[in-house]
Each structure stands twice: as structure tokens, then as C-alpha cells.
């Protein structure tokens, strides 16, 4: 199921004379958007016809007056205006007038999901918008914005999940493409709680419990969900703070991160001496431990037919049984590491239900590896869970080629992400997550055991972490000429992310800036210094000249002219290597900068090594691995995977290095000296046993793009884009206050008030657009 998104940009002043609306159909099929203005309420109308044809993946822009009142936008499906054009020309959402809805009577035939707008030129009266299911449902819908204001949406595909007596209409295959409201099927609509009519025609007698929508939600398994700022009946009970004050400043969050309505989960991590971090994953009928890797994209596990010697070691986690393998017919050979540490894994590609952090999705593609020299298997993992972008997925590429033929263009690859993409990307694309993101905290198992808890959180920030405490920076996008994904025909101007890679402002050692690398890139033009954020890398990797400079500074024994020179240094002398990101310093804890030496008095700076210079497809100079992630909580927001320009991916950082880190290192050294020169060290197994018995939620694959319900950067532009999406899959709920971070799914009706003018609006069908 696809979606329609309406996005409105909010200005910091309310004196503009017009707002720009953009309507985009991101469904892989044609829809017919419609628009209506209640001329009994206001005379201002948009400069766009009240209906038009929107082929798959196309957009239309137009302006609306600053005082547009009682306006609505919706989508029509399965239309044929060739004969007798009118309200019955479409399977749902049709209107009087045919293609162009009548300006007086063309309100649309239920069921239809509505995006409703009332704009204001008065600074003391906010703009209002909402997503409404009062007239039933025919496509998911979302309204988001680019300035941290409220998101209203219905991202669930309610058609197939509708109560039997409300289900319909049906397309030619018998599939339900709508869900009628309880009022529409009520035998006594003139005096009904379902219709808020007759004796129930007041807010007091038509409570939310009498709404036509909860029947739909309950049947969808979503009865307990809440819609922030939403309503599902004719009497709107939107309440709470505005997304922005009338003075244009952001509202202050009260009390930090609140419990969300959408799906989220967390799981503990295993840690093998800080060399390998593992996460429990259930695939098919087995729960096993796989390496947590933000540097790659694919899920693979060794199978019980693996022929590699590493697959037979006693430390290897549970392997996938080929007796239950659902073979796709495709196979893959995956490469990992750089030119100095490269490994590979290969095997057939199959489908199975995969679960991580209690969130399951069916028909997940993965490789059942039968040949590998990857060292993660040697150290106790059954494979790798890649958390990076679809553009880097060799499994997705192989399965799309198998299904559609050679990739002459990227359309099939990008559209196929919701079916064949990486595990977390597919989960995010369902729209069911509270936020389309994940966050990682890595624990410390050497030198001084402890630090962060070691947790993977999916769909939300970790409990107790406030968005305002993170520094958010954009992910680097890769042009085709740089080795990135070529733009598809339906989005020819898009540039896609390839890796979790961000620009860094500089590198600092003990408070002094280190000179930038002078080593030229290989065959590409690189004007900035960027870093890959990579949990699959147990070290810090950087340019050879910068690494040599740092090691020569901290060690008197290091000789850069010798290839095997070891940088030894006193264990009790702390050094702080820091990376400036988004204007803020993010240090590596002194306890994570060093490695154990022969005793507790002499250590080695062996967590810092050399990597390759930038090249096509790998523009980064630094790879910040586990030492960096042990010192910093990192949040990864996918953004819009089909149209990243409307919701770019980003990464948020929060330093977890304590102020007394130097003293803690000294104490750890003293403890080691008292322990015969041995530092603390431990191995923590991934919690596979608890994962096997934990509660699970299954999310439904859907081509929705990625919603903008993740925390937005603390520094935003003065404007905000509000987006309405029809056709996404996600959660639903009811009315609550609208905090700037409460940009959650709103399945029944989601409403919000804006304390300033909506300047531009983006309506996207088939995906979720955001800021």
C-alpha cells in the first residue's frame, strides 16, 4: 500500500500572500488527487484545478492563498472518466464533476482519507491542519514539517485490516482498497453514536469511544495506539502545545522523551573483548548472534552447510538450517573491510521471517553463507546484521537482478527496497516505527569494564535521552560520479546516501588541532574530510600521514618509517583524541584510546591504525569504529529512502565520556598493577535466550518511504514543512498534545495548529515526506 503526503512550510512571519503546495504521487500506480474548498466558509481558492491525473512518481506544484479556509486534499483510486464522468468514475474518492471536482459540490465520495487545512494571516491565530478518517479510509496519509512541528498521519493500510462489514470497495482482484466508516454502514445514520448525529450531535454525547474509527483500529490490532494531536470524529479534540509559538521560536520540550505511540524495541548486545559486538536475531526458527555492523548493509548468517574452517569453531553461534531454507534462486558474494583487511562471504539468498529487538518482518531477504573467511565467525558470531543503506546492499542488488533482470536503470532497485532491502531499512519503511531510526550504545569490556550499557534501540531514542541533547549532522550523499546510486527516472534529481558517513570539522589530540591529511584521493575530487561511523570496525582508522603524526606525538618508540613499528606509551598518561562534528567536540575516552601492552605500566596505541585514502564509492578519510562508539551514543536516522531530498538522513551524537575520564584511567591502571599487571577484561554473550522468549510485534512491509518522525536537528531553518501521506503502513491513535518531537503516526485523524503561516506544502502519495 502506498501513501499521499502533504507538506506545508511554515514561515517565521505570517505576512506572505501565498503558499506553495507540491503534490507528489510516489505510488507505483496512477492516482487522481482531488481538492475542494468550502466556499460557504471562505472564498480564497488555490490556483490549481480541483482534480488532476498523477502518474506514478510524479509531482505538481501550485500556490494557495494565505487565507485558504476549509480546504481539503485527498486521493482517488481506479478512475475512468471516459464516459459519464462523475462521482462514480472512481472506485473511491470520486466527486461531482469527474476529473476536476465541482467547486460547489465536489466533496468526494467516501471512503476517502482527508488532509484538511485552514490557514491564517493573523499572527494570533495559528494555521490548522489534520488527517481525517471521518469519511473513512482509502489511502494512508501523513502531514509532516521541517521545523520540528507536529506530524499528523494515518500510516496504516486499513483496507485489508478493516472490519468485515466496513471493508471495501474492492478492486478487480478482490483486494480491499478502502475502509468505510462505521457511520456509512450504520443502519440508522440519522441518530447514531457512530455518526455523531441526532441525540449524539454534541461533543459531550459523541465521545472518542463512539468514533467510527476505533472499530477499524481495533480490528487492525492497533486499539491501544494513541494519535498525538489527532481526532477521529466530527468534534475535534486537538489539544496541547503548538508546534511553534506565535513569536516563531520553538516550543520547549517538557520532561524529556515521552512514551510514544509507534513501535520501538531494544535489545542488549554481546561484547567479545571489544573486538566484536553481537546482537540476537531470530531468523526462521532459530535465534542466533550476529555482528552489529553499521558499515555494511546486508543480513547474512552461516548455514549448516558452511564449508569454511571458521564455521566449525566451538565459539560459532547457531547456524541456519538449510532444511528450512526458502531459496530465491539468487546468490551473492559480499566483500568487507579495506585493502589491508578485506574479507568475504558468499552463499545463496533466501527469504524468512527475521526479528530484531522484538520487531519482526516477514519475507526478509538474507544470505545463508556457505563460504567465508570473515573473522566475525571465528570470534563467536553467526554472521553480520548490516544496518547501512540499501545503496550498499549486495543482497538487494542480487535479488532485484534475479527478479527483474540486469539493472539498466535504478528504478526497480529503489522501488524494490520495501521488498528486498536490508532488514532495518524495510522495518523503517513500514511506517510502523515510532521514529525511523536506531541508536547504538556500546559497552566497554577491556581496560576498565563498564561504560554504556551496550544496547541497540530501534524506532526511538534510548529511554531517558532527550533529542535536544544530541548534535545532528547530515549524512553524506553520493553522486553517481562518486560511486553512488544513479537517480531513478521517477526522481531524476535525487542524490542517495551510500554509507553512514558524515563530514568532520577537524581532528584534535589533547586539545590541539592535528593537521589535515595531505594525501590525495584516488580518482575522485574530495573537498571535505568525512568519517564513516562503523560499529563493524573495532578500531579507529585514518589517513596514514595523520595517524603517523598522532602516534609520533604520543609515543617516543613509534617510527613511521618502519611498517611494523609499535607505538608504546605509559598506561597512566591519558591522551584524548577528539573529532569535531557539527561544531562540537566528541572525544574518544582515554580508556578506549589505548590497548594492553606487556604489563600495566606500558600500553600500546594500537586502537589507531591506517586506512585507504578516499576513492570512488568510499569518499571518507576516517572510519570511526568501536572506540568512538564506546565513548559516544550515536543515533542513526534513515530519512526518506526513496526521496532523500525531502527528509535527508542524519546522525545524532551525544558524548558519554565522563568529566573524570583521566582519573578513571589512572584508577584502572592502579587496579591492574595490583592485579599482577592484568587489566580487567570480559566477554559478554549476546542475550539470545531472552530474545527467544521475548514478546514480538510483526510489522507489515509497505512502500511508504521513510517518515519524518525522527528527532529533527536542534538547529533548523525558520520554516517547517508539513506533510500528509496516504498509503503508508504504521500505527494509529487518538488525540493528544503536539510536542515538537511528537511527530508520530496518527491513524484515525491527526491534527495540529501552527503559530505561523504555511508557506509551502508537499503532498506525496506512496511515501512519507518530511523535514
TrEMBL record:
Residues 235-265, 705-748 are annotated as: Disordered. Residues 707-740 have a biased composition (Low complexity). Residues 277-654 form the Peptidase A1 domain. Residues 1-18 form the signal peptide. The keyword Signal applies. The active site is at residues 293, 534. The keyword Signal applies. This is Peptidase A1 domain-containing protein. It comes from Tetrapyrgos nigripes.
